[in-house]
Structure formats: C-alpha cells, structure tokens
Design goal:
It contains four helices and six strands; from the N terminus they run βαβαβββαβα. It starts with a strand and ends with a helix. It binds a DNA duplex (12 and 12 nucleotides) through loops.
DNA sequence: GCCAACGTTGGC
DNA sequence: GCCAACGTTGGC
C-alpha cells in the first residue's frame, strides 16, 4: 500500500470538481519520472492527498482520494484539440499514462503549504524540498496520517 | 508577471 | 554524449 501527494491546479481540477464527479481520470502527466512511478509503483487501492497548486492563498492539501484504476494510456495525448496533445505519441504504444482516482474526502480545513513548511515533522516531505517540481510524489504513511490528522483539527 | 529550478530538445 | 536554447512548474 502506497501513499501519494498529487498536485492539481484548482482551475483545472479542484477537490470540489472531484467530489462532484466522484471519479476522474488523472490525465495530463507529461513528465517521465512521474509516468514511470505511476506505471511501476502506483497500485489500485493506494491513497493520495489532493494538493491545490498555483492557487494563490489557497495552496495546500485539501482532501484524500483513492487510486481505482492503474496506469493506462492517457487519451488526451491523441486528441489534437487537447492541450495535452502529443503528436509524437504512438496509439499502439502510448507515451503517456494516466490513472483513475476516486473521491474519498474533502478536509474540514485545508492544510496550507506554509503550515507544512513551518512544521519540522515534514522536513523531508518531497513537497517542501528545494527543486521539487514533480506533480506526483510518493510520501510516507506517517506524513500522510499526520496531514489527515491536522486537517481534522481547527487551527 | 517574475523567476528559480528544474526537464526536454536537437545540433554538433 | 555534450550543452545551449527553450519550455514548464509553481511559489511568490
């Protein structure tokens, strides 16, 4: 069982969007490191924290989702109208993969990036490490549990 | 909008 | 294989 932190810009897909849809394709991954992790490590039943990136004051961890379908060809890479279109990808051997995720919960309150940064407990969380730009990172269960706990408490 | 810190591309 | 140029991410 693995634990993840997955970033999404709320104007593309927010926790509320996922809550409404219940289930979504996590598409648009165009980074080989992330693709390989999704392909080789991510399993059905894994839990992931939903992180809002590029969201002004609303940056932070906002909820939990579950991986319900393991890596398969991302349909957006073959859609010329889509912003994630990749002309070099081969239909028979897709370059890019996506997974399906299911809404689990939206936190009572958001745990902000500032809060995470100022807490020594998260010193080695990939999110706060310099240079980390991967949109999907694997995290420790202890970090996952702590974030869920923090989110359930008032500030 | 800026820019640091990456990653990718392609000529050589 | 090197590396300059370019593109992207994402916090600020």
């Amino acid at each position: 069982m693995n634990y993840w932190l997955m970033k999404s810009e709320p104007n593309e897909l927010s926790i509320d969007d996922l809550k409404r849809a219940k289930r979504e394709k996590w598409h648009g991954i165009r980074n080989y490191q992330v693709r390989n992790m999704m392909r080789d490590v991510m399993k059905k039943g894994d839990l992931a924290l939903f992180y809002h990136s590029n969201a002004g004051k609303e940056i932070g961890v906002v909820g939990v989702m579950e991986i319900v379908k393991e890596a398969y060809g991302d349909v957006t890479q073959f859609d010329a109208e889509n912003k994630y279109y990749d002309a070099k990808s081969d239909l028979a051997n897709p370059r890019w993969l996506c997974v399906d995720v299911k809404f689990v919960q939206k936190f009572a309150r958001q745990v902000t990036l500032n809060e995470i940064k100022s807490n020594k407990f998260f010193a080695d969380l990939p999110l706060v490490k310099k240079g980390n730009r991967l949109s999907v990172v694997q995290i420790k269960k202890t970090h996952f549990d702590k974030l869920v706990l923090l989110a359930s408490k008032a500030v």
